[in-house]
Amino acid sequence: MKLSIIIVNYNVRYFLEQALLSVRRACAGLDAEVWVVDNNSVDDSVPMVREKFPEVRLIANEGNPGFSIANNQAIRQSAGAYVLLLNPDTVVEEDTFQKCIEFMDAHPGAGGLGVRMIDGSGAFLPESKRGFPSPWVAFCKTVGLSRLSPKSRLFNHYHLGYLGEWETNEVEVLAGAFMFMRRSVLEEIGLLDEAFFMYGEDIDLSYRIIQGGYKNYYFPETTIIHYKGESTKKGSLNYVKAFYQAMIIFARKHFEGRQARLFVWMLQLAIYLRASLTVVSNFIRRAYLPLLDAGLMYSGLVLIKDFWENYHFNDPDYYQETVLYFNFPLYTLIWLLGVFFSGGYDERYNLRRLIRGLLVGTIVLLAVYGLLDLEYRPSRALILLGAAWALGATTGLRLLMHFWQHRSFRLQEVQSHNLVIVGSLEESERVLQLLHKAEVSKNFIGTVAAEAAPDRTHYLSGLPQLGEVVHIYGVQELIFCSRDVSTQDIMEWMSRLGPAIDYKIVPKESMSIIGSSSKNTAGQLYTIDIQYNIAQPMSRRNKRVLDLLLSAALLLTFPLQLFVVKKPIGLLRNLFSVAFNRRSWVGYAPTHQANIRLPRLKPGVLSPLDGLRLRSLDEPTRQRLNFLYAKDYQTGKDVDVIWRGWRRLGN
Known about the structure:
48% of the residues lie in helices and 15% in strands. The protein starts with a strand and ends in a 7-residue tail after the last helix. Helix 1 runs parallel beside helix 2 (45-52), helix 10 (257-311) packs across helix 13 (380-406) and helix 11 (322-341) packs across helix 12 (351-369). A hairpin with a 5-residue loop joins strand 14 and strand 15 (512-515). It folds into 4 domains: 3-229, Spore Coat Polysaccharide Biosynthesis Protein SpsA, Chain A, CATH 3.90.550.10; 285-406, no CATH class; 418-527, Rossmann fold (3-Layer(aba) Sandwich); 533-648, no CATH class. It is of the alpha/beta class.
């Protein structure tokens, strides 16, 4: 056996399918085996592999032991003279494995090999070649010196920026997404260190290869796509903590004395710095629009107050100072909450949600107004005029933002990209059907044939003229049919046309269309999977608010519930479980099989069965009810179930 390819998968089924299809093509004519180790995915990855890739050796773990342990499981059972550790969110060229084998055969001193990687936009990934993270290297990366001087040997040793993208060179660290290694070297230096759960294991293994007297190489004569962001979400605190903790394990393992202490101290400092930056950036990204709205609302109320005092009452001191520090902040907060709970900040250009939220907020304000002391009831006119101002100002803000981003004031108009499909007419029609079923709107321009001289009555052009088609028609999105177009041609065109285009690939016989526009963002999927309302942020949020409000109401009226609810003690227990987010008042109906295809919910006190007042339903009916509950969820469904099952709230 010449080559063993090992892929560790965790909940990236569609990317795994595409990776395995590209691996199948690249293995043609080679004495190779493919292993997939699944770390307890819940997205049907295992059934997909068994059904579509019977030639793959599959290890289905019942838990998630981590990246290193999973790879070692397959390495120990594999038989290839070379071992390739490959990420599931990658696509390899048809001759990638052959070229790597030839290079390693010609360089007996090579212990490991990495290749040129591009992201889903065709941009080169600098982590294709890396240096060891010494204290100085880590410092330059942490404070940003490597970014300021990307070609510097002194400041950017981490990404070896001084080495050419297209030059074969010795390097220190292989990228974990593609580690091509000699088995005899692994048997000599040991397998992946299982102390690393995720991150750092590639640096540690690369370091040990060099310590063992072998060389690591960067080999740019073949290229792979790495949809960075799929296996890890790098904007999260969990990523920051996990990555730098892995570096600390590496430092304590391979450095000694003062150097080790200095490195660990720098890494710990980096954790706090990066975590702080992550928190701040996440807050700004989520809060900037509500903060802008709040500023507009409050400043508008102040202007309205001054105008109303001077021109209606002819008294510039008519209103008390309390309106500035009590009433106006209260009005602004309630309007913001109205927009928030109506989903106006989930879809910032959705005017219907914005108007609904402001209208609900105004109704709440007018209701609350009558409950306030006379001292805090300046004038209903301020509420009504303020509501009109809030509507106009927030709408105007969104118009300006939309124009800045899309050069259009038509908020409700879907900005359809000009789309060209590259492949056969048969596959092109299949792609259009997938887009239609996935409810994705695109301005379809036409099809470019995979061959050079197609029938121009049916095709826009042949593949060699793709660049001209993109320019003439202003194409913004390309979908390549991998059944008809080689991976090598796809990558060549991605690199040639650059990141201004959105690229996607539809694998052969797959029901998904895959792509990613940036190395820093998660990949995009066009699939015909069911869209569940319960998975929407607004639905999740409103469900939680209903849980909290009902818990508070039940606590305040608990003495009355003693005469209504069948099990009062159980009600009290459930009340606190829901309040502390361990349960929900309404969840899925119990079934013999886990609802792995449905969005996860907290265990429910009640279920859709309680809304029907039925108990003896068969298993398929229960599963169907759960499916409909998740798919068509509205807050009113929970209210109805709770009302019908009120006496069983103590169950």
